[in-house]
Amino acid sequence: MNEHLFKILVIGDGEVGKSSFLHRYVNGQFNKTYKMTMGVDYSLKLLYWSDKEKVRLHLWDIAGTKHFSVDRWMAGRHNERCVFPTGQERFISMNRIYYKGALGCVVMFDVTNPTSFRSCRHWKQDLDNKAMLPNGDSIPCILLANKCDLAQRAVTTDSIKRFSEANGFVTWMEISVKENMNVGEAMRRLVQEIMSVE
Ligand code: GDP
C-alpha cells in the first residue's frame, strides 16, 4: 500500500473554530471546553484513501501557536500546546517554520464575525508569501465559513464565493463544526486536491 504524509495547516483568527474543527475531525467530538483540558498543538489522522493508498495527515492548528515557544518545539515537545488565555488574536504573521513542508491549508472564518472574514485575505497572503509546493506553485487552500448553525450571520454566501474566486482558493464551503456539517467533506476535498497535484 502506498503511504502519503501530508502536513496541513489550519489558520484563521482566534475563536473562529479551528481547534474545534480539528477535534471534531480527528476525534469525532464537539466539546465547548476541551481546549482548556486537552493541550494539543497538532493532531494526526490516518485515512484509508483507497485500496492502494493510505494518507497520514499532520494537522497543525497554527494560530494556536501564538504563545508557543520555539525553544520548546526544538526540544521535541511540540505536542504540548501552550495555553493562550485571550483567544483574541487577530491576524498575526506566522514564522516560516510553521509553514515549512505544508502541502495543504484550511483558512477558516466565522460567518457571524465580519472581521474574521476580512482577515482571510491576510492569512492567504501570508501563506502564499511563506510557503509553496516543491514545483513553486501555491499550496492548495480551502476556505471554510464556520458556525453556519448560528442565526446571526453577517457574511453573505455571495461575498464568500467572490472572495474565494478572487483569492485563489481551491474551493469554499459553509460548515458547522457544532452540527458536524461538511467537516469530513471539506477535508476530503482538500486531500483530493493535494493528491491531484502531488
Ligand atoms: P479557535 O480559537 O479558532 O481554535 O476556536 P475554538 O475552536 O476554540 O472555538 C471558539 C468558540 O467557538 C468555542 O466556544 C467553540 O465552542 C465555538 N464554536 C466552534 N465551532 C462552532 C460552530 O460550528 N458553531 C457554533 N455555534 N460554535 C462553534
Automatic annotation (TrEMBL):
It is found in: Endomembrane system; Membrane. Keywords: GTP-binding, Lipoprotein, Membrane, Nucleotide-binding, Prenylation. SUPFAM superfamilies: P-loop containing nucleoside triphosphate hydrolases (SSF52540). SMART domains: RAB, RAN, RAS, RHO. Pfam families: Ras (PF00071), Roc (PF08477). GO terms for cellular component: late endosome; lysosome; membrane; phagocytic vesicle; trans-Golgi network. The keyword Lipoprotein applies. It is a lipid-anchor. InterPro entries: P-loop_NTPase, Rab29/Rab38/Rab32, Small_GTPase. Transmembrane segments: none annotated. GO terms for molecular function: GTP binding; GTPase activity. GO terms for biological process: endosome to lysosome transport; phagosome-lysosome fusion. The keyword Transit peptide does not apply. Belongs to the small GTPase superfamily. Rab family. The small GTPases Rab are key regulators in vesicle trafficking. This is Ras-related protein Rab. It comes from Cottoperca gobio.
